[in-house]
Design brief:
With 832 residues, the chain is α+β, with helices and mostly antiparallel strands. It has 14 helices and 46 strands. 45% of the residues are buried.
Length: 832
């Protein structure tokens, strides 16, 4: 593929213009392209390879070993063969070195060595046996070449010179090379953080700092697409189709889009992979596999060496019509590597936005490395799908010559909080530095970003259960530190048949402890969206609180680098499954009101039961669990934060939460208050009323977002038109109106206009009494009610405004009483 340089430059300009997040096209600082054994310059893919005979300073010989440097050429090369393979350099008698001056010191570099054997006089290049080192590190030895071959290595160069040394195997052998490329790559191509290491025996460790190693490319695959040549890749790489690697070809269906990817901060860039990789994919082929509702797409990539491999998987959601439609799991060698992938969250709520994930795989036997994707348990029955856009597999080289053989470099294994699966842009780095500087000067708590061990807790780690009532967490409620062996026993060694759910933190299992206690065991998995900060937050919060409407923690385990949390088992599961997408019978309106009231009481305790209060930050129907009596309990405190201090109005923090429930003011200003929970709870109220998801991409455009759609009907006075059909003849108009008004106030655009959760609680109880006929409704049925722990005197507030705060009675003696008992002295008609 040959064009003029001017056309090529024009092509690059167009590519740069199309990329919204690429400030300029990538131009390598170091860019050495050497045509070995040639005295001419050769143009390949609009790149100029310089003949090393014209630049004799590139190559040097070790005079002590008296090597010979010979130029050979093929007098009759095949047609359409690139000219760089017409000639070669042959090295005999000892080491021969190519030396390159490096400008981008400490930068990532690509080293490509081109080999093509041919006969020249007495030299048959296919009989060459030799080794190659780079700056003293062995790339390969005892190497022979049978056909045209390109070997690519990726490494960080920390010196001013890069030396590539070719050494014949012995005095009777020789080495050769046809062409050499040394190209600096963007630093963001690989990031200095740990990636999860999967052992072939199922063990999980964390592999640290891949950029300190040398990687050799084994596979670079364009999944669902055609071959990509170097001309169409910003780093001049070749991507091959995936078809031959599919384990069951009928399980996959090729999809593509003509639209370029939407590159986003925190995702991939054009240098990570070209547009074409993200514009094609394989998805589940449900037409061919109709007998199974759920199945995986699997690729097998044969490998021979028993070493560590670096695996990079590329994703771009080109199959969904709206956000939060696609949830899938990623498996490596049969182990779940990334559960519940939601690309909408990972790419800042943007479809068709490139993203990648990195893993390390330890192979103690010959391959293949097996990559699978399949639908998540979070997927609804109508949206079971999974995709994959690209795969890169690289061998991690870690040997260095010395003495009588190779010495393996020691690897430090540490545990990191999470896997960074994207590119950290310069602006975000500056922001992080700014925040870190401010936090260093501020003594208030901030979110942890590193993996540090929990503080020591009273008792032996080997004991069956350690009471932490005197622990640094100050629980007083007997939260236990549970040995890993006890957790294994409870879950039958994490039997997959006991899985009852999954989330960003990991899989959730049903288990039974030796004392007979049934628990829900949440085990962190490598690559989970949440890590140590969430683990510590759950323990810190749940060890301090006890409330009828908050899920209780039974214990936790941090043995063997595990992060495991055990909770009281909630028989009926999440509220969401009782509203839609499940096999449960529909809830009555009274049951739904009781559930909302219970959830509000739990949130009210969080907001008001402590000096600063606790903001949940992830209120949604999947985080409200029901016990066997349908008592609601708020769960999952991994994202929770302490509220603002007395002299503060908000907490400044990065945005976290779930799409569809996220407070828009919090999203815009990154200022968190308890009113953010109120907004999310307002969405839950509408879920309860309408029995549909917060976001449903399969519906018409105006109906996709529940909050926006329902508010239109509420404001028009037609809320009854969109309620759950099972409730149409059950809800009394006065109760519906009070409930709708409360939800509308919760969803106010600005937090200052929203009620407190205490106000919401009292109005929900009022809606329940209106439904049960305990309060006679008249034309002014939108009054507000309030009571306190000290008094249950009726208070009348005219108008529709919800503006009076209330303090719920959270004392333990009231925990077992019904809501009707607790609120029996609310406003009556007589009181008015």
């Amino acid at each position: 593929m040959y064009t003029k340089n001017v056309k090529f430059i024009y092509f690059l300009v167009i590519l740069c213009y199309l990329s919204l997040f690429s400030v300029t096209c990538f131009t390598p600082v170091d860019n050495y392209l050497i045509d070995c054994g040639s005295n001419n310059n050769t143009v390949i893919d609009n790149r100029v390879f310089v003949g090393d005979l014209t630049k004799p300073g590139f190559v040097t010989v070790n005079s002590a070993t008296n090597p010979s440097l010979i130029t050979v050429f093929d007098s009759n090369p095949p047609e359409n063969l690139p000219p760089i393979y017409y000639t070669a350099r042959v090295f005999t008698g000892g080491p021969t070195t190519y030396v390159f001056n490096i400008k981008n010191i400490a930068g990532i570099h690509l080293v490509r060595l081109h080999f093509r054997p041919f006969n020249y006089q007495s030299y048959n290049l296919s009989t060459a046996v030799f080794g190659v080192t780079v700056n003293g590190y062995l790339l390969f030895q005892g190497f022979t070449v049978g056909s045209l071959l390109l070997r690519e290595f990726i490494l960080r160069v920390n010196t001013k010179k890069l030396q590539i040394v070719f050494t014949p195997e012995n005095e009777n052998s020789f080495g050769f090379v046809n062409a050499i490329e040394v190209i600096s790559a963007p630093d963001s191509l690989f990031i200095d953080v740990g990636v999860p290491l999967f052992g072939s025996d199922g063990g999980i460790l964390r592999y640290v700092n891949v950029t300190s190693e040398i990687l050799e490319t084994v596979y670079r695959v364009n999944v669902g697409g055609s071959k990509i040549t170097p001309f169409n890749d910003t780093l001049w790489r070749t991507w091959i189709p995936d078809y031959q690697y599919l384990a069951l070809k009928s399980a996959a269906k090729r999809v593509n889009t003509p639209n370029p990817p939407n590159y986003r901060p925190g995702g991939a860039t054009k240098e990570v992979a070209p547009d074409s990789v993200y514009m094609s994919a394989q998805e589940m082929n449900k037409e061919n596999v109709t007998e199974l509702a759920e199945f995986n797409i699997t690729w097998n990539f044969p490998v021979v060496d028993h070493v560590l491999y670096f695996v990079r998987l590329h994703f771009c959601d080109i199959v969904s019509h709206a956000l939060n439609e696609l949830f899938f799991d990623v498996y490596i060698n049969g182990m779940i590597a990334k559960p519940d992938v939601d690309l909408s969250l990972l790419t800042i709520h943007k479809l068709a936005s490139p993203y990648y994930m990195d893993f390390a795989v330890g192979m103690q036997h010959s391959g293949p490395i097996q990559i699978s994707v399949g639908p998540s348990v979070l997927s609804s029955s109508s949206m079971k799908n999974a995709i994959l856009n690209g795969v890169e597999i690289m061998k991690i080289l870690n040997s260095k010559p010395g003495g009588s053989g190779n010495t393996r470099r020691n690897h430090v294994l540490v545990v990191l909080s999470s896997v960074v699966g994207g590119v950290i842009l310069f602006g975000f780095i500056i922001f992080a530095i700014f925040v870190a500087f401010k936090c260093k000067k501020n003594t208030k708590s901030v979110e942890s970003v590193g993996w540090i061990p929990l503080r020591a807790i009273t008792g032996s780690a080997n004991s069956r259960g350690t009471d932490t009532s005197n622990s640094p967490h100050g629980t007083g409620y007997g939260v236990l530190k549970i040995p890993f062996e006890e957790v294994q026993f409870a879950t039958n060694n994490f039997d997959r048949s006991l899985i009852i759910g999954s989330g960003g933190f990991g899989m959730v299992y049903k288990g039974v402890l030796r004392n007979g206690t049934t628990v829900a065991v949440k085990r962190a998995m490598p690559g989970s969206r949440q890590g140590l900060p969430e683990f510590q937050a759950e323990i810190s919060i749940l060890s301090k609180i006890r409330h009828r409407h908050l899920v209780s923690m039974v214990g936790y385990c941090e043995d063997q680098s595990e992060m495991i949390l055990a909770y009281e088992y909630m028989e009926k599961g999440p509220l969401k499954k009782h509203l839609y997408g499940g096999a449960f019978p529909p809830l009555s309106w009274k049951q739904r009101l009781d559930i909302c009231i219970g959830s509000a009481r739990g949130l009210h305790y969080l907001h008001t039961g402590f000096t600063q209060g606790i903001i949940h930050r992830d209120v949604k129907s999947t985080n409200i669990l029901l016990d066997d009596s349908y008592v609601a309990k708020v769960a999952d405190f991994g994202l929770s934060r302490s509220g603002p201090l007395i002299d503060q109005t908000h907490v400044s923090t990065g945005v976290k939460g779930s799409f569809g429930y996220l407070d828009p003011e919090y999203f815009r200003r990154q200022q968190l208050t308890d009113k953010s929970d109120v907004y999310s709870f307002g969405v839950v109220l509408l879920e309860v009323l309408c029995a549909r998801p917060a976001v449903d991409p399969l519906l018409a455009r105006e109906q996709v977002n529940l909050a926006e759609w329902a508010l239109e009907f509420q404001k028009a006075g037609h809320l009854e038109d969109i309620i759950d059909p099972h409730l149409r003849d059950e809800i009394k108009p006065a109760s519906l109106k009070k409930f709708g008004d409360t939800a509308q106030k919760c969803l106010s655009e600005y937090g200052v206009d929203r009620p407190t959760i205490g106000d919401v609680l009292w109005n929900l109880e009022y809606a329940l009494q209106l439904q049960e006929g305990q309060i006679m409704s008249d034309r002014n049925d939108s009054i507000n009610t309030m009571t306190t722990e000290q008094s249950t005197t009726s208070v009348v507030v005219p108008g529709d405004a919800i503006n009076i705060s209330a303090v719920a009675d959270t004392s333990d003696e009231n925990l077992g009483r019904s809501t009707s008992e607790l609120f029996s002295q609310l406003i009556t008609r007589k009181g008015r």
